[in-house]
Amino acid sequence: MIAIKNVSKWYGQFQVLTDCSTQVAKGDVMVICGPSGSGKSTLIKTVNGLEPFQRGEITVDGVSVGAKGTDLPALRARIGMVFQNFELFPHLSVRENLTLGQVKVLGRGQDEANARGLKYLDRVGLLAQQDKFPNQLSGGQQQRVAIARALSMDPIAMLFDEPTSALDPEMINEVLDVMVGLAQEGMTMMVVTHEMGFARKVANRVVFMDKGHILEDCAKEEFFGAPRSERAKDFLARII
Ligand code: ADP
Ligand code: MG
């Protein structure tokens, strides 16, 4: 479903991604990990066209992300993205956060958008919070709303960029539980995270990045059992 082929990217003179290649099949849950600054956020953002790249090719469901003429807003509407800092619209209620994209981007009627939004809000356990504003919710609740908002758009895949790293420890599991549920239902996911418990539980693939290179791209069992690179071994020794 997602194919990343020999992608390189520079910020000015600085090469942030070097010849990165990997693939995500339908239903795969790929965990991407690696030291801070290794290019994980940049890589995941190239997938839905939030970051341009200079070399290589990325296709999502057959659509070339980097090609001239690709309708990036249409592509982004099909891929859910959840960020570290939730990125809810602060001036809109939870319900309005859930419906805005459905109405503006997908052209759904307000009633349909409400029904779908509330269905997913219920699913993340926050139906009772629909009239609140983001700043009236905890971080864990805001992140669950962000996930519900992304799901309301009926995405073909979900991208997560360190979705729990801004959360207080007691809120991490409520977000991970939602993500585990999604994974178990077969959602195609790329997840940048250092939550190795999550990786062990539901990932089928692990990618390890360092300094803009993909150093490991293997089955979960292989990554945790016998990582090939010294850097991945060091990394695992430090975070587990
Ligand atoms: P990670 O998510 O693994 O921590 P990032 O993808 O955020 O890494 O960043 C990779 C590298 O690219 C870092 O060295 C970072 O400082 C640099 N970088 C990220 N965004 C920009 C930018 N907009 N301009 C210049 N350098 C950037
Ligand atoms: Mg990052």
Automatic annotation (TrEMBL):
It is a peripheral membrane protein. It comes from the Bacteria. GO terms for cellular component: plasma membrane. GO terms for molecular function: ABC-type amino acid transporter activity; ATP binding; ATP hydrolysis activity. SUPFAM superfamilies: P-loop containing nucleoside triphosphate hydrolases. It is found in: Cell membrane. Residues 2-236 form the ABC transporter domain. Its main location: membrane. The keyword Hydrolase does not apply. Keywords: Amino-acid transport, ATP-binding, Cell membrane, Membrane, Nucleotide-binding, Transport. It holds the Pfam family ABC_tran. Belongs to the ABC transporter superfamily. This is L-glutamate ABC transporter ATP-binding protein /L-aspartate ABC transporter ATP-binding protein. It comes from Pseudoduganella namucuonensis.
